[in-house]
């Protein structure tokens, strides 16, 4: 229990900023071998760095080709904020994430842990079940039609919210997909966190972001979230499967209580 | 991050069997000072042992009087199985648990963590919101009337289910009760676990327990659950508040997917 992730080989996407950078840093500090993936390398927080654009299918294929075998953990952390255009956002946050995961599974060691960084923004997924079901056949080729049919444009940050809602459902759906190999998938949902993309959220969400700020005692920090990801990567969580840990200072709990008049 | 709970003073109720015993054992192993509470002492897994009947208000008061100050963690683990009479079950699992918690808060150190051991049996709490709201005024004195008014007798294990449903709601409601002192409350919900009370569950739940067994690849063990409790006691979880970690091999996720046709 002491050495949570010591000696584990872990891939972290979006390792150059925010939650991904802090996660890579503490995993390295704990003796893990971190393979970082991002557009640019900002820190010496990884053992190996792989430059890759996770919105592009061919790039993802090429990335997985050069990754080593025996990967004990995959942190799907890379994600675009709601200010980005809906098509590129859905490519990175949803299509690319799923594609990378399926491609990487043969290179995962038995007992490996996959951790998806979702968001409090995904909390309302039950209201989007129809669109989420429809997204099961979503590909790079029918993306524009999907955005228009299911109204998941960038307006009001809808594409971002949808990407996180669908990610949470996909996490649950994969609770037992690789159970015979002991590979589990879980998610972590941060609330508002003080990272380089926080201004993008405030720009998109406006009043809602202000309300959140007034409710919370302080904004979250990458230091609040990274240890939760490390925990899910560790052997302490072999019985947690298809589950979403909400690390948001109590914001999700607050929403749930309000919704039920509690 | 390495020494999750080293040097922390932690009270564990129900420390003599099952999940509580394993929790006390690994906390002690990690260098915590464990104060165990139970009816009888079975193991040398604690620093100090306090004999107490947690169904009794006066006994709880007497217990808290002799506990030291500076407590960093409280694990509300003691609980009766569904085969017990409804009144004694609700006293231990709900009334006694709440009473102990409120009494012990003044002896908690700033930044302390309270962990309630709930259950997958509490998963359906949204359907019981009215009874749960009514239970806010439940005391030792109006228990019989409450059981009859809200139909929470032991039939079909209803009193057990209700005790866990109410515990999950109470956990959420207390997300920010002691926020000014940095004291957080969270829950852990195991699914079916191979402990001395597993036969009681099978006796009460019948077909449902069999269905669970067929769905799971194996029953849970105390070794699956105790590390999750240790995690919630550690400083790694200061941003997790009013939250319920479901450590059940994916059973809750399975129920949620089924309920939404996913």
Automatic annotation (TrEMBL), chains A, B:
Its EC number is 1.3.1.-. GO terms for molecular function: oxidoreductase activity. Keywords: Oxidoreductase. The keyword NAD does not apply. It comes from the Bacteria. The keyword Nucleotide-binding does not apply. It is an enzyme of class 1 (oxidoreductase). InterPro entries: NAD(P)-bd_dom_sf, SDR_fam. This is 2,3-dihydroxy-2,3-dihydro-phenylpropionate dehydrogenase. The lineage of its organism: Bacteria, Pseudomonadati, Pseudomonadota, Alphaproteobacteria, Rhodobacterales.
């Amino acid at each position: 229990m002491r050495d949570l992730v010591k000696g584990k080989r872990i891939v972290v996407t979006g390792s150059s900023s925010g939650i991904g950078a802090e996660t890579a840093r503490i995993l390295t500090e704990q003796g893990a071998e971190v393979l970082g993936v991002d557009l640019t390398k900002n820190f010496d927080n990884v053992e190996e760095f792989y430059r890759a654009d996770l919105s592009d299918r061919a790039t993802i294929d090429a990335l997985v080709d050069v990754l080593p075998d025996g990967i004990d953990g995959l942190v799907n952390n890379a994600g675009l904020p709601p200010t980005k255009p809906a098509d590129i956002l859905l490519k990175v946050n949803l299509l690319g994430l799923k594609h990378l995961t399926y491609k990487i599974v043969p290179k995962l060691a038995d007992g490996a842990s996959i951790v998806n960084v979702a968001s409090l923004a995904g909390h309302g997924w039950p209201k989007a079940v129809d669109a989420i079901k429809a997204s099961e056949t979503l590909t790079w080729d029918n993306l524009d039609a999907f955005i228009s049919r299911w109204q998941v444009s960038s307006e009001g940050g809808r594409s971002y919210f949808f990407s996180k809602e669908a990610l949470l459902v996909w996490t649950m759906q994969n609770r037992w997909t690789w159970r015979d190999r002991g590979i589990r998938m879980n998610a972590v949902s941060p609330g508002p966190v003080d990272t380089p993309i926080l201004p993008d959220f405030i720009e998109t969400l406006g009043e809602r972001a202000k309300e959140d700020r007034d409710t919370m005692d302080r904004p979250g920090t990458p230091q609040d979230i990274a240890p939760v990801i490390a925990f899910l990567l560790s052997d302490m969580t072999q019985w947690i499967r298809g589950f979403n840990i909400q690390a948001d200072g109590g914001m999700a709990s607050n929403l749930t209580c309000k919704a039920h008049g509690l």
